């Protein structure tokens, strides 16, 4: 069997078996995005967070002097609570992820809710090559080939944010206004890296669920899938065992005459299953995402889901233990993820509504996150990351060879504790241990100002989501700690500025 690794918003079937998936990826269209409420063209409201949409004429290549066309970078801005330049009102900038920036704005309520407390301006710049921020005038042209995609990198994206915020502050005569960075998942990685690369631009960063160590062999390659597996095991050992057993059952049924037809019927697929690999990948996707969003309340972050969805999946699997075969039980369980609302009649495993994903390119160039699965500790089948096959797929798809050591060369990662302790400051790494991406993040304090906030029952950047009346106490406490740390950064900044002014 092959192992599928997933991508945000879009995915490519030919190379999906080998490419590492981004922290925010999805197998099927995101249904919750429809909750964005459209207002007049240049003024939108996402979950009661009002912002103006603007565009910035951005440089395509910040690191050369080639005569290249600029592109329009979309960004969202709100100044309703900003204290203004005369009072050095802070600027909260969310580092846009690999997708439409309005979706991330709608799912980052913590940033919006902090703005009035600190008198802050809020800015959500969109990541180049995603959403509407397309070089060369269109997505089709931007994604045409390796030459047009060449400038889709984390380095270029960070430079976009640095140039945008510097120019904006200059135009507002707000050069003295401090900038705090926010980001979740890949956006959290960007926030941490930007704080390290551009310390003169931003005074601090909240990097939520940011797997900056998920490269090369910094963490064991089995870490991600072991965490997913442990999330299911902690709910029910019988559920864990059933899932572990199911892979061999799928293989056995698939080898029979008309076996693929039988699997198609069992899992209510829209079209005939072409291979068992497609079914493996579909199930793998559901289990992994469930671990990411095992939130303590109902949500629609990736899919409409109940509170503690893994518990509900295991309940569905275990409730049919008597007299029901393994595959029917697995279908009952996975339906909690793919069809919790009960509105889906059949599942299309080949659904690819968006076309090529920018993350596929990033994964084939610099964002190489190797993962494996161990048969003894994981509920997934055993498999090993094979760089040779990985590189061949990238060469076939894009005509490029990955650079698996580039991220650690550019941003660091090895010996990160001593490096961050010596050269880093004012970074919060927040993680929930239910989130499989936490295994590739910083989970212990590095210094007094490079701090890890870890919650045992937290999931994928839950702390960045909007506050709710039913938030558990540990989540309220985590956010309170983040607020205090951010307040400390700002207090230190203003004290330093005041002292310099008096001099």
Automatic annotation (TrEMBL):
Enzyme class: hydrolase
Region forming the signal peptide: 1-17
Keyword Signal applies: yes
Annotated keywords: Carboxypeptidase, Glycoprotein, Hydrolase, Protease, Signal
EC number, UniProt record: 3.4.16.2
GO term, biological process aspect, one: proteolysis
Alphabetical list of InterPro entries matching this protein: AB_hydrolase_fold (IPR029058), Peptidase_S28 (IPR008758), Ser_carbopepase_S28_SKS (IPR042269)
One annotated GO molecular function: dipeptidyl-peptidase activity
Family named by the database record: Belongs to the peptidase S28 family.
Protein name per the record: Lysosomal Pro-Xaa carboxypeptidase
Biological source species: Helianthus annuus
């Amino acid at each position: 069997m092959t192992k599928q690794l997933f991508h945000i918003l879009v995915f490519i079937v030919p190379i999906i078996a080998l490419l590492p998936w981004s922290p925010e990826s999805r197998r099927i269209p995101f249904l919750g995005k429809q909750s964005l409420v459209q207002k007049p063209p240049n003024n939108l409201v996402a979950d009661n967070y009002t912002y103006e949409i603007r565009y910035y004429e951005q440089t395509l290549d910040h690191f050369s002097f080639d005569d290249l066309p600029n592109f329009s970078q979309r960004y969202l801005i709100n100044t309703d609570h900003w204290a203004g330049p005369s009072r050095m009102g802070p600027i909260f900038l969310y580092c846009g992820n690999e997708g439409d920036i309005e979706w991330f704005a709608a799912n980052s309520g913590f940033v919006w809710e902090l703005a009035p407390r600190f008198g802050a301006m809020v800015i959500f710049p969109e990541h180049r090559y995603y959403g509407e921020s397309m070089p060369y005038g269109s997505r089709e042209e931007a994604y045409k080939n390796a030459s047009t995609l060449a400038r889709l990198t984390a380095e270029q994206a960070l430079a976009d944010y640095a140039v945008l915020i510097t120019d904006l502050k200059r135009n507002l005569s707000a050069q003295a206004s401090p900038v705090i960075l926010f980001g979740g998942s890949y956006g959290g990685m960007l926030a941490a890296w930007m704080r390290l690369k551009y310390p003169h631009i931003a005074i601090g960063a909240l990097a939520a669920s940011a797997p900056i160590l998920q490269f090369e062999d910094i963490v064991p390659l089995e870490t991600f899938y072991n965490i997913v597996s442990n999330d299911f095991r902690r709910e029910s050992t019988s559920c864990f065992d059933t899932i572990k057993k199911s892979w061999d059952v799928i293989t056995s049924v698939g080898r029979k005459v008309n076996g693929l037809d039988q699997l198609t019927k069992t899992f209510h697929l829209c079209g005939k299953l072409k291979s068992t690999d497609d079914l493996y990948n579909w199930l793998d996707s559901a289990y992994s995402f469930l671990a990411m969003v095992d939130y303590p309340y109902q949500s629609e972050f990736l899919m409409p889901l109940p509170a503690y969805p893994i518990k509900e999946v295991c309940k569905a699997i275990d409730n049919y233990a008597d007299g029901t075969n393994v595959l029917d039980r697995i279908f009952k369980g996975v339906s909690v993820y793919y069809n919790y609302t009960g509105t889906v009649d059949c599942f299309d495993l080949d659904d690819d509504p968006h076309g090529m994903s920018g993350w596929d390119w990033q994964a084939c160039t610099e964002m190489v996150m190797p993962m494996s699965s161990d048969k003894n500790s994981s509920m997934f089948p055993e498999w090993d990351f094979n760089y040779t096959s990985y590189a061949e797929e990238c060469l076939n798809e894009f005509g490029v060879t990955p650079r698996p050591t580039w991220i650690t060369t550019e941003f660091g990662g090895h010996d990160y504790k001593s490096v961050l302790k010596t050269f880093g400051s004012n970074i919060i790494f927040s993680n929930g241990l239910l989130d499989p991406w936490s295994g590739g993040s910083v989970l212990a304090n590095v210094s007094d100002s490079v701090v890890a906030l870890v919650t045992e029952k937290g999931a994928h950047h839950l702390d960045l989501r909007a506050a709710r009346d039913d938030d558990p106490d540990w989540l309220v406490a985590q956010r309170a700690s983040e607020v205090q740390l951010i307040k400390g950064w700002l207090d230190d900044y203003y004290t330093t500025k005041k002292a310099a002014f008096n001099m």
